[in-house]
Specification:
The protein is 65% helix and 3% strand. It is mainly alpha-helical. Bound molecules: benzoyl coenzyme A.
Length: 326
């Protein structure tokens, strides 16, 4: 096997033999598992990205949960409830994947609640109308799938495997959102206006989900080398726009970008300037809903204190019973 032929002693180009061996495994397309040796930077990058991803799933429940009690029909309520529960599940698989790297879930949650860890910028925008439920499924879950399908093939096994199940569920989320948009955009003029207004508000923040432009992304180059990221932020953003623009045409809705047009020679859509000042402002904590989101998470954490205490107590009791029976 290729990796067995790699020299494992000495240092070259500032890389130890162990690091070169690790990179050779990555280059050969091998999957890295939790107990394998890995560079500290690889471990830290994964903990950062997977935990940010997990926090996004958990905080991401809040904008949609806002509409569960106001869903227009019982069917819509059941779908929305299932979707929001799925997001909680995604958060838990991802915290589990991060824990394989030697960090505890309670530490990760503490970092989120202390404002030290990020979550996706998109969840700091308000959900003002029912059409926002359609737009979140269509655009936000659509962007998430675009980003997450390549992650199913990333180099770290526990993350890649968690992503496979998550992507299947995200696909259902995207379709239910597109179905809401189809109904609204073929409905009354008030429904069409509501759908257009939601698209106007969510389009640009959805493009920001893919992260800063490649030229300003501090982590992309190394993450690509380690195959944590298989595609860059700009590549994924372009794919998303190329996929979504014809869907908007099908819905008869107008994407709020006067510069958006098909470029036949490039084989892609050209698009206008993204307001990166807005993006950086949101990730610094100054978006429209950052404070509300963190308040809600802290309250949920405090309300759940008795459950955590009871679970620890029960686990200790079981352990003591098992020890006395042995
Ligand atoms: N928002 O060098 P870069 C969902 C940060 S939830 C906030 O490009 P990287 C859903 C970045 O962390 C899906 N922060 O970083 C749930 C870094 O800051 P730090 C969420 C952002 O990591 C409920 C700095 O900017 N998906 O589907 O190489 C309902 C520089 O960026 C954002 C994931 O989390 C952002 N948008 O690439 C509905 C996917 N973008 O850490 C739906 C997994 C960048 O140095 N994550 N930053 O302080 C990734 O693929 C990558 O982490 C990113 C960023 C592409 C997001």
């Amino acid at each position: 096997m290729y990796t067995q032929m790699v020299e494992v002693v000495g240092e070259q180009n500032g890389e130890t033999a162990q690091e070169r061996h690790f990179q050779a495994r990555i280059d050969a397309g091998e999957t890295i598992e939790a107990k394998d040796w890995m560079p500290e930077g690889y471990r830290k990058t994964l903990i950062r990205q997977i935990s940010q991803h997990a926090h996004s799933e958990i905080v991401g429940q809040l904008p949609e949960a806002n509409w569960i009690t106001r869903a227009p029909t019982l069917r819509r309520k059941a779908i929305l409830l299932a979707k929001v529960q799925d997001e909680a599940g995604h958060g838990l698989y991802l915290y589990g994947a991060a824990e394989t790297l030697g960090v505890s879930r309670s530490q990760l949650v503490d970092d989120l609640l202390a404002g030290k860890a990020k979550y996706s910028s998109i969840f700091n925008y308000p959900t003002l109308t029912w059409a926002d439920m359609g737009t979140i499924g269509w655009l936000v879950d659509g962007a998430a799938i675009m980003n997450q399908i390549p992650l199913c093939r990333c180099s770290y096994g526990p993350y890649a495997r968690a992503m496979i199940r998550i992507c299947k569920e995200e696909s259902f989320h995207q379709r239910q959102g597109f179905e809401i948009m189809t109904i609204l955009s073929h409905g009354t003029s008030a429904q069409r206006a509501m759908a257009q207004d939601a698209l106007n508000r969510w389009w640009w923040p959805s493009l920001m989900m893919f992260g800063p432009p490649d030229a300003e992304s501090p982590h992309t180059a190394q993450s690509k080398r380690w195959k944590i990221k298989l595609l860059t932020n700009d590549e994924l953003r372009q794919r998303f726009i190329d996929q979504t623009a014809p869907q908007a045409d099908y819905l008869g809705l107008k994407i709020p970008d006067p510069a958006l047009r098909w470029n036949a020679s490039a084989g892609h859509y050209d698009f206008g300037q993204i307001d990166w000042a807005e993006f950086y402002n949101v990730i610094k904590g100054n978006g429209p809903c950052n404070r509300d989101r963190m308040r809600a998470r802290r309250a949920a954490h405090d309300d759940g204190a008795w459950v955590r205490a009871a679970a620890i107590e029960y686990a200790q009791k079981r352990k003591a019973e098992e020890a006395s029976a042995a």
